[in-house]
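Page 47, continued from p. 46.
Same chain as before, 165 aa.
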Amino acid sequence: MNCPFCRNEESRVIDSRPADEGTAIRRRRECTTCGSRFSTQETAVLSIIKRSGATEPFSREKVINGVRKACQNRPVSDDDLALLAQRVEESLRATGQAEIEAQEVGMAILSPLRELDEVAYLRYASVYRNFSSLEDFEGEIALLRAIPSEKISESKNQVSSPQLK
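Result:
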């Protein structure tokens, strides 16, 4: 780590603490040349592997923008969407993998979205799972009725059903 004061490449860590709810580490450093102290914040990069094979860093904003359309005209606030994106990121980081398939991100969105708003969940699932008939919607609605969202949050299971044809 370069010292921001003298540009020396050598520094020593004085203190380390978790930051941003455990997703980062804040380090207090001291330059070995000039003795100045400075702080750094380190995070592990979570990469998303797209269908094309390209990788890009995880973005909470992309999660929010994708879910916002499903939540249109629903009683869902921007704070609710930000919390949902945070929960999705936390669940993806909890897998311990540095690279996540884009499809896994979509699956990680479904459970917290269902807890937030079942209509928005149905809208999102219909696009994400490519519903093509009324039977697809009926099957998903039957699952919504059969398994109340409280039970999902208690068991922390993600609802995923095979696409009905």
